[in-house]
Specification:
Layout: E1 19-20, E2 36-43, E3 53-60, E4 63-71, E5 76-81, E6 87-92, E7 99-102, E8 112-113, E9 120-122, E10 130-138, E11 144-152, E12 164-165, E13 169-171, E14 177-178, E15 181-183, E16 196-198, E17 201-205, E18 218-223, E19 229-234, E20 252-253, E21 258-261, E22 286-290, E23 296-302, H1 306-311, E24 322-323, E25 327-328, E26 334-335, E27 337-340, E28 347-351, E29 357-358, E30 367-369, E31 382-384, E32 387-391, E33 395-403, E34 406-407, E35 413-419, E36 427-431, E37 434-442, E38 448-453, E39 456-463, E40 483-485, E41 488-493, E42 496-502
Parallel strand pairs: 1-36, 23-29
Antiparallel strand pairs: 2-42, 3-4, 4-5, 5-6, 7-8, 7-10, 9-10, 10-11, 11-12, 13-15, 14-15, 16-17, 17-18, 18-19, 20-21, 21-22, 22-23, 24-27, 25-26, 27-28, 28-30, 31-32, 32-33, 33-34, 33-35, 36-37, 37-38, 38-39, 40-41, 41-42
Length: 504
């Protein structure tokens, strides 16, 4: 059974808040270079671009373990004992005679493409629970494959007759279409954004390789119980591009709809009577997707200069969406909001009940904050205690408190140092409302893990380069989100996962 201590999905919950509220060990008093540091390294067979996941009290060979699950670009999933670091099982997701995909002439995911996106766990499935992952591979005949796998949490065995070969069609005359039908080409896409699991359905979305070739914006739904596809949607069916990657963040949800930031692509600035693009093309938009009876665009927001932004590759799609909890505005009304930012360095706060659609002269949304992020956002914010935390490219990590359902127009605190490309996606640990720490990974030839006091980011508690080589873990991966669980912090690296905790 799932517990509060589990981390079963990207950024901790379907809202993608990034808050782990069951942390009873790590506090601002003991997270420092004297008492805290690297305590283990979980060696794997390739780059770990996906966020690790954590499930407590899993029975493996009849013995209960707290387990960390690690997926690699070498198309493997590993289970490690979280307390000892011992490997419990390893499963290759390659079919016979296959290799991982090559980098597809793109520097985004290199040198191989296997499992890039963060998997998701459903502890209610089967006898022991299931972990779902999407793997890319290449056959001996040169054909590329994308497959959805469900693995038993205890053994790594394939479940539900899987894996399922991923394929899709959607009506349209846009990219990769024939006779009015667009077709998903598995070699043209990567599953970069994290998997979402909402109400028993898995949601996948796809990005291109460096904007190369002919592609559209695909979102797909699969049954978590059968691995059968239940719906597919092309976000640019009569145009092109408009992919979903969000720098590894996952589509967010309020328990019903999905929320995402779509990348540069065709947007029809001519609208129908409902205010929707006349040809159904939603490139460079903040999207709300209905999930029932099938995937469809329920609402959207497009910046007034969306076409220009797409043409200049200054799109929203580099960032991820965060669903905020219900907030009460100055008039006493309850607001349902979501927040996102992308390459234009503007924070957009939208009303999920009326997102603002498109207006060619102004952005008619709940709130827009300009000039406060020092660069583009390649990642997503975190939320804790009525504060939104953002880490843009070349910028300090910044805290934006919320009052009367509005974000502060200037940050209340910021980190002492800045984060080079791609900035940072923060995560937060706390014991309920107490002892909150903001964790942030740093990319570069020398990666680093940073910890800040959540109530004042100017107070850096720790970073992994403070103690000489003791806590270093090599180069930082590009889009790494720290995962906190049960007194430990896990950071993906080029050949495994660095584990941080209280020193012996």
């Amino acid at each position: 059974m799932a517990s509060a201590a589990d981390v079963l999905t990207y950024h901790n919950d379907i809202a993608r808040t990034g808050q782990y509220l069951a942390e009873t060990t790590l506090t601002p008093a003991n997270v420092n270079s004297t008492r805290f540091g690297k305590v283990a390294f979980l060696a794997a067979d390739g780059k770990v671009d996906a966020q690790p996941l954590y499930a407590s009290n899993v029975s493996v060979n009849g013995v209960a373990h707290n387990v960390v699950y690690v997926a690699t670009e070498h198309d493997s999933v590993f289970a490690f004992d979280a307390d000892t670091g011992a490997p419990l099982w390893q499963r290759s997701l390659l079919s016979s005679g296959e290799t991982t995909s090559d980098a597809r002439n793109c520097s985004q995911i290199t040198p191989e493409i296997g499992v890039t996106s963060t998997p998701v766990i459903d502890r209610s499935r089967g006898a022991n629970g299931a972990i779902y992952a999407v793997a890319m591979s290449k056959g001996s005949n040169g054909a590329y494959h994308q497959r959805l796998h469900a693995l038993d949490l205890s053994t790594g065995a394939e479940m539900f007759g899987g894996p399922t070969e991923i394929a899709a069609t959607y009506p349209g005359n846009g990219a990769s279409s024939t006779n009015g039908v667009t077709v998903f080409n598995p070699g043209q896409y990567a599953e970069r954004q994290a998997l979402a699991l909402v109400n028993g359905t898995l949601y996948l979305a796809w990005t291109s390789h460096c904007d190369q070739g002919v592609y559209g914006g695909w979102v797909m739904a699969y049954s978590a119980g059968t691995l059968a596809q239940t719906s597919a949607l092309n976000l640019t069916p009569n145009g092109s591009e408009g992919s979903v990657w969000m720098s590894g963040a996952g589509m967010a949800s309020d328990g019903n709809a999905l929320y995402l930031l779509d990348a540069n692509g065709t947007f029809d600035s001519t609208l129908n009577s409902s205010g929707f693009p006349v040809n159904g093309d939603f490139g460079n938009t903040f999207l709300k997707l209905a999930t029932s009876p099938k995937l469809s665009v329920a609402d959207y927001f497009a910046p007034f200069n969306t076409v220009t932004e797409s043409n200049q590759d200054v799109d929203l799609g580099s960032g991820g969406a965060l669903v905020l909890p219900d907030l009460v505005d100055a008039s006493g009304a309850t607001r349902h909001l979501a927040v996102g930012a992308g390459k234009d360095a503007k924070i957009y706060v939208v009303d999920r009940n009326a997102m603002g659609k498109f207006n060619g002269t102004q952005n008619a949304i709940w709130q827009e904050i300009d000039g406060q992020l020092g660069g583009a956002v390649f990642g997503m914010p975190a939320y804790f205690g009525n504060v939104v935390y953002y880490g843009a490219v070349g910028d300090n990590l910044k805290a934006f408190p919320i009052t009367s359902a509005k974000l502060a127009t200037t940050p209340s605190s910021k980190s002492p140092g800045t984060f080079a490309y791609p900035g940072t996606t923060p995560s937060i640990s706390a014991n309920g409302t107490q002892n909150a720490i903001v964790w942030a990974a740093q990319n570069g030839s020398v990666g680093a893990l940073h910890a800040f006091d959540a109530s004042n980011l100017a107070r850096e508690l720790y970073n992994s380069n403070q103690a000489g080589s003791r806590d270093t873990f090599g180069a930082g991966n590009k889009f790494i989100t720290p995962m906190i669980a049960h007194g430990r912090v896990y950071v993906g690296a080029t050949n495994g996962v660095a584990v941080f905790g209280l020193l012996p």
